[in-house]
Amino acid sequence: MDEKKRSLTTCYPIIHNSVEIFVVLTGIKSCDQREQKYDMTPSEYIKQMLMSTQERIDYLLKPGRSINVRPLYDNCESECFKATPRIVLFQQFVPGNVYNMMLTIRNVTKLYNIHEFNPEFPFLNVTSQMSRHLKISRYPDPFFSVEYQGSNYSTIVAPGLVHVYNVRFNPAEKRDYEYRIEFVNDTEIFAVPVIGQINIVLAIGPRPILDIPDQIEIPATAVKIPSSKTILVRNVGDMPAIFNFCSDNPCFSVEPSKGILEEEETMQLTANFLSEKSGEFKANLFLNYELGEKLCLTLRSLAINCTIRIDRGSVRMENTYLGLSRSKLLTIHNRSDYVVRFQWMCFRDKKADIQRKEEYKTLFQLVHNMEMVRRVSLVHYNICLPDIHELVCQRIYTDEIASLMNENFHYNHMSFLLMPEKGEIWPQSSADITVFFRAMEVGEISSVAYLEVTGREDRIPLRLQKKKLA
């Protein structure tokens, strides 16, 4: 190849997805069940990257090794011939050295029966085999060459016999390479992909790799109380690692979720866990590199319900005259080893909170629609222009929705008051709550306040009752 073509080959290198290649070679299934992506654990990725060219050759030529290259390349299957190995892979190479790998093409034409008519033996089955033509089609390349290994080259391959070729690779620099060897027979054309995969571990390749464990066990915690674990992550590659993390479980997160880590530098990575429910939890944490590699880690943790209770389930006030007030004392006991936060709420759970927000949102939408219709009347009385009125209504509606989304629905009643409304309780401690009652009208009144407390999955109901006297 002339100097111009050589420079073009060098200026526009191919970048392979190394994880994608290794997943095909090892047959590892994706841990992402939603999408069929190529991913593997960090330890397996490092193991594959550390293989020398000779170790990779031994791996590919191991008897019984079955590799399906269809996810990577098309037109690599043949019904008549079998290529061993199915894919040629060079890695951990040094520029200037020469590397060789043997490629065997075997005629595996299946036997078939021919029914011939014979007067003496009607429908005689004759078993036959077929020799196949085989030609190699190779494109000139400054880095790869293919040579036939044998004394006499023949384009016809008998059943069960093989053609042996030597694939020679002479890299000029540390980058990715790709080459295809096509074979043509009587009925089809099939190819054997040849890949020069650079090494990114021994400082001879321009790719990063983060040294991170396959599994991170986050310490167990209580419901609604966060837990975290910090680990050290090092970039053992030879170029800055541009990465991002994403989890398939909202209970888990990592900080930082994305960033850049220079070669040989170390950073702290914090894995966080927070759950509204109790039980054991597991998540897949995906590490994505800028060049397309995707690794899969496992996050695990446990959330439990703490022993937190109110010393009574209901409070009944004595008879109170109109205009007067009474109070009673109750106690919240925290029998856990966590500092818990509490607050009094109107509804029994978060589902009811969301449902009430949706109801208010519908009402706000109705009011907004009615105001949009009124703009005609405002024009008639020369109060406001239609466009200005529409903008004002839209702004008011937007502010109302934003305020609604921030609403927590704390307990609020005209006759009952709980003090303090929210606070903290230290481990193995208690907190006193004062219940105030104000007699505002004659008759019986009852209400239910719900104690939202970190450490418990559900809210604790407290029934409040009082009979007012005239």
Automatic annotation (TrEMBL):
<dbReference type="Pfam" id="PF22544">
    <property type="entry name" value="HYDIN_VesB_CFA65-like_Ig"/>
</dbReference>
<protein>
    <submittedName>
        <fullName>Hydrocephalus-inducing-like protein</fullName>
    </submittedName>
</protein>
<dbReference type="InterPro" id="IPR053879">
    <property type="entry name" value="HYDIN_VesB_CFA65-like_Ig"/>
</dbReference>
<dbReference type="InterPro" id="IPR033305">
    <property type="entry name" value="Hydin-like"/>
</dbReference>
<dbReference type="GO" id="GO:0005930">
    <property type="term" value="C:axoneme"/>
</dbReference>
<keyword id="KW-0969">Cilium</keyword>
<dbReference type="GO" id="GO:1904158">
    <property type="term" value="P:axonemal central apparatus assembly"/>
</dbReference>
<dbReference type="InterPro" id="IPR013783">
    <property type="entry name" value="Ig-like_fold"/>
</dbReference>
<dbReference type="GO" id="GO:0003341">
    <property type="term" value="P:cilium movement"/>
</dbReference>
<feature type="domain" description="HYDIN/VesB/CFA65-like Ig-like">
    <location>
        <begin position="208"/>
        <end position="300"/>
    </location>
</feature>
<keyword id="KW-0963">Cytoplasm</keyword>
<keyword id="KW-0966">Cell projection</keyword>
